[in-house]
Design a protein that fits this description.
Elements (H helix, E strand, L loop, with lengths): L1 H38 L6 H21 L1 H14 L2 H74 L1
Helix pairs in contact: 1-2, 1-3, 1-4, 3-4
Length: 158
C-alpha cells in the first residue's frame, strides 16, 4: 500500500510538472501574441497591418492547437486530486501559472479591442476625407462647367 501511495505521488508530481511546462509554453505564446497584437496600435500602413495579421494568425493557430480550455480544466482536476503533502506547493504553482495565463489572455483581448477601435476611427477619418474630396470634386466640376459657359454668355452680350 505504501508503494501505491508513492507511485501515485510520483504520478501526481509528473502530471504537475508536465502541466507547469505546458503552462509555461502557453505563457511564452501569449507573450508573443501580446507583443504582435500591440504592434497593431502603432501600425501606420496597410503593409504593416498585413504582416501583423499574418503573424497573429500563425500564433492563433498555435494557440488553437494547445486547446487552452482543456489545459485549464485538466489543471483544475489535477490540483483538486493532488495528495495533501503535494497540494500546497504544486497547487499554488499551477494556480499561479494559470492565473498569469488568464491575465495575459485578458490583456491581449483588451489590446485587440483598442486596435479595433483605432482601426474603426481611421476608417471613419478616411470615409470623411473621401466624402469631402468627392464634394469638392462635384463643386469644382460644377464651377468649371459654369465658368466655361460664362465667357460665351458674356461674349454674346457684347
Amino acid at each position: 500500500m505504501c508503494r501505491m501511495g508513492l507511485a501515485s505521488d510520483l504520478d501526481a508530481r509528473e502530471q504537475g510538472s508536465r502541466l507547469l511546462e505546458q503552462h509555461e509554453d502557453l505563457r511564452k505564446q501569449l507573450l508573443e501574441l501580446r507583443r504582435v497584437t500591440s504592434l497593431q496600435l502603432e501600425a501606420d500602413s496597410p503593409r504593416a497591418w498585413e504582416t501583423i495579421l499574418q503573424q497573429k494568425q500563425h500564433l492563433l493557430d498555435q494557440l488553437e492547437a494547445v486547446d487552452t480550455e482543456a489545459l485549464f480544466l485538466h489543471t483544475q482536476r489535477v490540483m483538486n486530486n493532488l495528495p495533501r503533502d503535494l497540494n500546497g506547493e504544486w497547487a499554488e504553482r499551477l494556480s499561479s501559472r494559470q492565473e498569469e495565463n488568464v491575465a495575459l489572455m485578458e490583456e491581449v483581448v483588451r489590446i485587440e479591442a483598442d486596435a479595433a477601435a483605432r482601426l474603426n476611427s481611421q476608417i471613419r477619418e478616411v470615409r470623411l476625407a473621401l466624402a469631402k474630396t468627392q464634394r469638392n470634386a462635384q463643386v469644382s466640376g460644377a464651377y468649371r462647367g459654369r465658368s466655361a459657359a460664362t465667357p460665351r454668355f458674356l461674349d454674346s452680350k457684347r
